[in-house]
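Entry:
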Amino acid sequence: MRQFLYLRDPLFVLGCAAYVINRWLIKPHLHSGIFHSQFNDLWLIPCALPPVLWLHRRRGLRTHDAPPQLSEIVGHLIFWSLLFEGIGPKLVAHTTGDPADVLAYGVGAILAGLWWQRARLLARLSAP
C-alpha cells in the first residue's frame, strides 16, 4: 500500500493552487458563474482533509499513513457541511447556508476519494 503524502499530496497541492488562482486572480474579475460561487467549495475536502489527517497522525488519532479512507472522507464531509452550512450561518449574521455548497463539497469529496483510492480501484479492476 502506498503512503499518503499529506501536505505533499498532488491533489492537495493542485487544489490549494486552484483556490489561490481563483480567489485572487479569477474571482475578482468575474461576478457570476461557477468560479464565483461553488468552484472553491469543490476543493474543501481535497484541501482541508490532508492537513487535518496530518494533525491527527501527529497526535496519535490516526494510526496509519494510508490514503484517506471512506469513513474519514465522509465523516469530515458531514462535519464540515453541518458546520459551514448549518451551524455557522446561525452564528454569523451575514452568512447563509447553501445546499449548492454542500453539493459542491460532496462532488469534491467523491473526486478526491477516487484519486486517493485510485491504486486500490485500479488493482480491483485489473484482477481476474
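The mean pLDDT is 93.
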